[in-house]
Amino acid sequence: MGNPTLNPGKFITVEGGEGAGKSTQVRLLTEALGRVGIDALATREPGGSPGAEAIRRLLLEGDAERWDATGETLLFFAARRDHVARTIQPALAAGKWVICDRFTDSTIAYQGYGRGLPLDELTALRHFAIGDFRPDLTLILDLPVDQGLARAASRSTADRFERLDRTFHQRLRDGFLAIATAEPERCAVIDGSAEVDAVHRAIISAVAERLGVGSK
Ligand code: Z5A
User: Fold this and answer.
1) What global pTM score does this model have?
2) Is 216 part of any domain?
3) What one-character-per-residue DSSP string does 36-69 give?
4) Atom of ligand 1 nearest to the CA of 198
5) Residue 21: CB within 6 Å of ligand 1?
6) What pLDDT digit, counting tens, does each position of 70-118 carry?
7) Could you point out which of 36, 170, 184, 197 has its C-alpha 20 to 30 Å from the C-alpha of 203?
8) CATH code at 156?
9) Residue 104 sits in which domain range?
10) Could you tell me the distance, in angstroms and rounded to a whole number, from the CA of residue 151 to the centre of ligand 1?
11) How many helices (H) and strands (E) does the chain have?
12) Is 104 domain-assigned?
């Protein structure tokens, strides 16, 4: 799979723990890009293509222990490969920007830092599944674990992942911040604890600074 820098479009991923506000901010960013004349596609993981949406149902439904960490990881990468090949790369090649709610950093954070799989093996699996394909920019929405869990709890019934314990969610937060520290050129950490509009403004600033576009 090719590198996104060879595509005319840009690939932006939005990451973070439970209730970080990713879906909200993906929608707002996509709308803001549209107002400055950028054709942007919002998508999500797991999912984003018919095959990956079918795998999403396998992943999110059922008991917390339905899959072990390795089986779960293979399903996430199978879904991701389909999503990249059938949705993301064709959109980028057509000149669209793609804004994705979660991507490979979620696997590193959840299955690596959270569930304890070796990070080097996840990196090898990433290469097997999607080669060198990477986001142009990753926005990591960071906020205290309790605040995120409170938001997620007020919104819906818990899925398999939200039923995991608080220490798991703290490892996730630490994992996302470690990813950002390791790859500062690709990642921008955004304060996700602020009001929706303030988070959106911080995201627009990061996109403008890193990718050179503004908003109206
Ligand atoms: N997963 C994995 O383990 N490995 C992987 O590789 C991948 C995923 C790709 C996908 O679930 C699960 O799969 C996920 C990780 C795992 N675990 N869980 N759960 P999902 O797609 O169903 O859900 P999610 O991605 O986890 O979404 P979320 O965390 O539940 O929500 P969010 O998208 O970050 O936030 P939101 O829906 O925009 O907002 C949540 C609520 O907070 C909602 O009521 C908003 O109105 C409110 N909100 C949003 N922003 C704010 C602010 N700024 N202030 C106050 N309230 C706010």
Assistant:
1) 0.94
2) no
3) TT--EEEEESS-SSHHHHHHHHHHHSS-TTSS-H
4) 53
5) yes
6) 999 999 999 999 999 999 999 999 999 999 999 999 999 999 999 999 9
7) 170
8) 3.40.50.300
9) 4-211
10) 9
11) 9, 5
12) yes
